[in-house]
Design goal:
Order of helices and strands: HHHHHHHHHH
Largest sheet: none
CATH superfamily of the largest domain: Tetracycline Repressor, domain 2
Number of domains: 2
Strand content: under 5%
Shape: elongated
Structural class: mainly alpha
Radius of gyration: 20 Å
Helix content: over 70%
CATH architecture of the largest domain: Orthogonal Bundle
Distance between the termini: 67 Å
Number of helices: 10
């Protein structure tokens, strides 16, 4: 076998290619090793099995998927507008991925059903982003909350229904997303709760 300089990034790129080629159910470490022209033992030096490798791929994929939300957080705009944009970004990112990158989305769904570690990390990061905007809104006098983290978690849970594939075919999906986001923002603005 040809000598190749391996690192985690090279292995993750190859794993994504294998998942896209064979799907998450059929892809395996041997396929990744063949693509890289190394032994499967070489892969095990970096990842302790298929689950660890697929977790790492999904973790990286989720980070890339939600990268635009980092830009939204940096915007110089009022918290209510920023929160609306962030929530729309969250729900549309998964929808776009299901259409444009179905194999990686299938890998995400499979992982969500079998291993919650990566999914919980991504969920917590989403909640923290929402919390950051709620805190900004409190500072601006737009939002009223005694517990920004609890409010952020509730907002995340209320919109998470729209990242489920069952919602993707709903002809009223965009209207429903807008209605829920508007309702949540009005609730955060209500000082008489």
């Amino acid at each position: 076998m040809d000598k190749i300089s391996l690192d985690k990034e090279i292995i993750l790129n190859a794993t994504e290619e294998v998942i896209r080629r064979f799907g998450p159910d059929k892809a395996n470490i041997t396929d990744v090793a063949k693509l890289l022209k190394v032994s499967h033992a070489a892969i095990y030096r970096y990842y302790n099995g298929k689950a660890a490798l697929f977790n790492a791929v999904t973790d990286r994929w989720l980070a890339q998927l939600h990268a635009p939300s980092n830009d939204i957080l940096k915007e110089d705009s009022p918290a209510d507008a920023k929160l609306s944009k962030l929530l729309e970004s969250f729900v549309e990112a998964k929808h776009r991925s299901a259409i444009n990158d179905p194999e990686m989305f299938a890998n995400y769904i499979k992982l969500a059903q079998s291993s919650m570690e990566v999914i919980e990390k991504s969920k917590e990061e989403g909640i923290k982003r929402i919390e950051e905007i709620i805190v900004q809104g409190i500072t601006e006098g737009i939002f009223f909350s005694e517990s920004p983290y609890k409010e952020a978690r509730s907002v995340y849970l209320a919109t998470s229904v729209f990242i489920h594939p069952n919602s993707f075919e709903d002809s009223d999906r965009k209207q429903n997303i807008e209605s829920v986001i508007n309702l949540l923002i009005r609730g955060l603005k209500n000082s008489n709760r």
